[in-house]
Amino acid sequence: MLRSTIEPENRHSTTKAAIILGLVIIAAYAPVIFLSQTYNQSTPIPPEFLGYEGKSTLFGTTADRWGDFQSMWPELKLGTKLISQGQIHLWDQYVGVGKPLSADANVYLFSPITLGFLLPIQFWDIPLLIALWIAGIFTFLFLRNLGLGFTASTAGGIFYMLSGGFSWFLTNPNVAVMTFTPFILYSL
Questions:
Q1: Which of 26, 124, 147, 153 has the most CB atoms lying inside 10 A of its own CB?
Q2: How far is 162 from 144, CA to CA, in rounded Å?
Q3: Distance between CA atoms of 13 and 116, rounded to whole angstroms?
Q4: What is the pLDDT of residues 72-122, one digit of tens each?
Q5: % helix / strand / coil in the chain, to the nearest 5?
C-alpha cells in the first residue's frame, strides 16, 4: 500500500493555500470570469472569426500590444482542432511554403496548458487562469519546502502569480515556462 509523503497537517495547509490562491485569482480576474471580458483578444481579426462574439477585452485592451497571441492564435486553433480529431499535425502548410507546427515554441502544442485550448474558443481564458493557479500553488509548495511558514509561502504564491510577467503578458508564450518554473524548483 502506498502512503502519501505529505503529512496530514501539510495536506490541510496545502488545501487551504490552494483555496486562498483560487479566491485571489477570482478576485483579481473578476472581469474575465463574471463580466464576459477576455484576455485573449489583442488582434485586429473581427470577433466573429475569433469566436468571441459578445466579449470585450479586459479594460478595453490587453497589455500584449505586440500581438503574441494574435500571431499564435491561428496555429493554436489549427493544432488543437487537429488534435481533437485524433491527428498530430507536424507541419503547418498554411504559412508560406510551410513551417513546423508541433515544434513551434510559440504554440507549445504538447504543453499541459494546451489541453485547455481544446475547449471552445470562448473558454480560452480558463487555461490561462488555471496556469496562474498552478504557478501560485507550486510556488507555495516550493517555499514551504524551503522551510518558510504558511503565511510567507502563501504570500509568495500570490505575489508570483500576480507578478508583472503574468498580469501584463498572460497571453504570451513565455507563460508556459513561467508557470512550470516553480514546479521544476519544487521537484528538485
A1: 124
A2: 19
A3: 27
A4: 666 777 777 777 787 777 777 777 777 777 777 667 777 777 777 777 777
A5: 60, 5, 35
